[in-house]
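Hey all, sorry for the wall of text incoming. These are the three entities for the joint prediction.
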Amino acid sequence: MTEPVAALFFTGLLLFMTGVYLLLGVRNLLRIVLAIEVLAKGTTLMLLGAGLFRGAMGLAQSLIVTFIVVETILAAVMLALVVVCQRTNSSLDIRLLSRLKG
Amino acid sequence: MDAYVGSVLLLPLVGALLTPWVSKLGRRAADVLAGAVGLAVLASCLALVPAAGITTAFRAFGTEFAVDGLSLLFLVVISVIGFFCAVYSIDYIGHYGGRAKFYALLMLLIFGLNGVVLVRDLFSLYVFLEVASISSYVLVAYNLEFDGIESALKYLLLSAVATGMIVIGLSLIFASTGTLAFGELKAALSGGDNPLFLFAAALFLAGFGLKAAVVPFHAWLPDAHPSAPAPISAMLSGVVIKVAGVYSLTRLFLGIYPAPARVLKVFLVLGVASMAAGAIVAYFQTDMKRMLAYSSISQIGYIMIGLGLGNWLGVVGALFHVLNHALFKSLLFLNSGAVQFRTGTRDIREMGGLENRMPVTSVTSTFGTLSIAGIPPFNGFWSKLFIVLGALAAKNYLVAVLTISFSVFTLGYFLLLQRRVFFGNLNERWRDLKEAPAAMSFAVICLAAQCLLVGVFFNQVVRGLIEPAARVLLGGN
Amino acid sequence: MTLLIGCLALLVISVVLLGVFRDLLYAAVALALASVILSIVLFHFGANVAGAFELSVCAGLITVLFVSTVSLTKDSDQKDEARLPALFILPAVALFAGVAYFLVRWLAPSLPAPTAAQTVPFREVFWGLRMTDVLGQISLVLVGVFGLLAILRARSAEGHHD
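and here's what came out:
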């Protein structure tokens, strides 16, 4: 595999795993949004790497742009939920979530 | 033909768009719109059924969608349950407020789900999956109470990881094969069993497995289902986990990947784990909807077992169970919603003898209970039978025995539920209880009738709808 | 290549900072920085449209939304005490780097030889081949609009709750 692609895949996977790690250890609901954004960045790098490898940058850009749109809508909905959560509970402590057992 | 596909696809979107204006026409206008759209979509779907074996394509403005046997089965599931949930909502969501927005989001959910089964490209599948998922996050949180919001956030964050894994798997597949279209992928992947395909497969399994609430990726479901409004719980359990999860897994692993034996084994193992864990935990629940939620995890296990067996009987059984579970589980959820609507509680310890006051709810729940436990002539019996026969055909006696045992166990805890909620002496608290409102009763009566009719006419349903779907996956008899 | 490695290293560093910063606003800045670096990487490979999008949407819009939310939720009784991630983030990142390295090494041989570049311009692909996705995105915007309106709606009379 060509070196830039390898570097992109490496960083992409690294960021994704870091994002999941951050997600697992948050205390504040707002940090969930940050963690999800981090793993989205990792995913974007993977898409870029794949597109670069195939030399299909037009397609890769389409996928990335669509992906960014999806992530943004998701972030907006998440943030709205956090705002309302704060309104009803006066707290953004994630330990509230573990009240609901899985 | 493609006019029908077009309407199935576009009507919900147009309906959602029109909701704000239509709701200005009158308090009930949005209800009528949602009901009309639901009915039109259902009718278009049913119009496609006679031609089940043929692939129909719909192309407009450069988009490409197609219906084959597999897509059609799931399309029918979506439109049937979607329509009845919309009708049920007419009476149910009054006290939530935001009626028009609810219908708009419900229609967008249906649009997203339809899109998932109609696309022929892996990335587009992801996009429409997100349309459906994000709509469902909002719908789960609809009561804007503590439990709704928290469940929605938990569902959301687990889903975000899942979809991230799906897109990463997708990137790797694209880097390797240069394509994302189903047809071309099938050809490209038949080549080999290399590490990259396996790693991507693992990512897809985890990602779509979470959407299907397969153990061990099920953690979001037991909270999301009880907190959501009843019609949304019905949609989630009956439709979303099937379409977002089971359809994607089936399309990917049985339709595109050359059904590698290792993957099927994983299906089987996870299926048994889900069936067992779901049933056992369900038994100990006191919250009606939570019990139903765990039961869904268990029933998805049956479906995974059927798929994992990989033979004709197993796959037909699994796909048939997709339809049947959608029917009886949404029926049960809608009824639990009716009970909650009237009594204000979901705790079965506070109930008792409700059949005296809510006869329709009670009888239809009995239908649902008998179906889920697999009692003939109801629909559940046949799909479970096929799965057991599939296990026997594959000489997997352990799985057959486990499946039968857990079916008996399911019958056990559901009868218990029925008894504690509906039978027995009427709890004094509920002396003045009324039956569920008309629209809600209408929806559940129709679903209960279908559970019976599909069971009685199982032969026609299997030949006409299920076998064409199975043929897409297994290529002929 | 060295430019790329430098950018990617900076990207990882800003993510680590994001995990370490106690103050949410500093963390938001770290995220914005990460987005900027990512868009530089995108521009470097000629993905101009994607780079512009990443810059304006992620570095811009999402940061704005996030900061607004932080200020809207200012009076939560949130004690941002030392969390596990912050303490162990460096060893965790090192571990993930090792895993990522082995994954790339393991998967690389499965990739076929790099093909000749078939540069179809973005506009053609987006509005042509991927029109299905465009329809999806339009509906996503609708989901976002209705979703936000639904979530942020004013609660009027109290009905009986579930």
